Amino acid sequence: MLGNTPRDWRSGVPGVLVVCLLLTLAPSVIAQTAEPGALTGKVTDGSGGVVANATVTATSVDTGQSRSATTATDGTYKFDQMPPGSYRVKFEAAGFKTVEISSKVNGSETGVLDGKLEAGERVNGKPQEPLPNAPSSSTTAPSLQDLGLSPEQTQGNAQEQARLDKRTHMLKVHQRLGLITLAPLVATFITSANAGGKNTSTADRTTHLVLGAVSGDLYFMTAYYAIRAPRIAGTETRGPIRLHKAMAWIHGPGMLLTPILGAIAYDQKNKGEKVHGIASAHGPVAIVTGAAFGIAVMSVSFKF
Amino acid sequence: MHRKMLIAFLLLGIPAFGAPDSQWTLEQSTLTYHVSHPLHQSEGVSHAARGKGVCHAAQCDFLIAVPVKSFDSGDSNRDLHMLQVTRGAQFPLVTVRTHLPEAASTSATVRADLEIQFAGQTVQYKQVAFQLVTQGNETRISGTVPATLTDFKIEPPTLLTMPVKNDIPVRVEMTWRPQ
Description:
CATH architecture of chain B: Beta Barrel
Number of helices of chain B: 2
Structural class of chain B: alpha+beta
Number of strands of chain A: 10
Shape of chain A: elongated
Structural class of chain A: alpha+beta
Oligomer: heterodimer
Number of domains of chain B: 1
CATH class of chain B: Mainly Beta
Shape of chain B: elongated
């Protein structure tokens, strides 16, 4: 039986590693090869008239980088060489309320995003008709300064918002990949029944190995998105996320140890030996790792 | 002589005319938003609101402001996610403005028109009912603002591809004290 020799096992490993490597690198390769796009549009007021000299600011949700443009006399603007991705586009003009719209830029395409501005409290220095339930225009009306709020408390921070956006985006990917990882992980556990014991075959062991490799690869992709998600300063960890993070200290090392022990066990079985020594811990370590991973997934799945 | 006295009287009266007749200060507050999901219910609470009312000619203007990030649901991950979807870093305050007659403070119920700025949007809620209880020098106000996610153009967060409900009623309990 050629398939039972260690030599054949070793010859199969590079192929599995190549597949794992490709899976790992695929997202970044795709991102690097995407062509830039463009975004254009027209800014108008409530009556449909064009608004010249309006400031249009596009902020990348992914990177937090911003670009600004000013509308021409016909109310149009254009951003060239925009990296593909999600953007928040803000339209500002004197006398109008600021409007912000989410948009996507696709590679090598020119997206169209028009901005429609509503009149603010004052237009051309003339007070507008008061809103039906607006506070009175009395000069005695309290202001934010009257409440003792500092400018830091009242002013927005676009960079911090971009960090939050990126964090949420990465953690959403983290969550989805984690759920996807469950499928091959469960399949790996199911195939483990035929991979060990006396009545095992090389095909069963290889199936188990490949599924385990795919699970491990998806797992580390999942972990990447959690580890690289931006941290928000001054945040104290509270709630179910504490359990989620605590479980990582179990399934993280477990995900490293399990395949190492599995490889030793695989080698021993292919030599016709009974699994012995440290390799006999492969099963128990895998069970603890899988359980910790399952608890981690459950702890954050029943909330948004 | 009479003309000089009249002018002097008017000049003395100008500062008094511009000054408020009375003011109100927000002493304590509890604002609670409620979010519903088919699999989950959650609430976030803030006690960090600041408010002031300025009355003049029997009419009062009120302003209440609360930092978005002060809402605490007991889950830091959820709070950060809420901060993100409501764009709380870019628009850090929720402000509420309303205008009421001064006599409303003696009523058991008032219906207020609210102008709320939140998540970069300004939304008006008409005739929102509040209950008033006056004890000693304090007036306690309670009611619920029928806010929705779409009012403020907030994309509903999802869990297992199911979005939360659009309604995010905000329970308001405040204690005001005249100055």
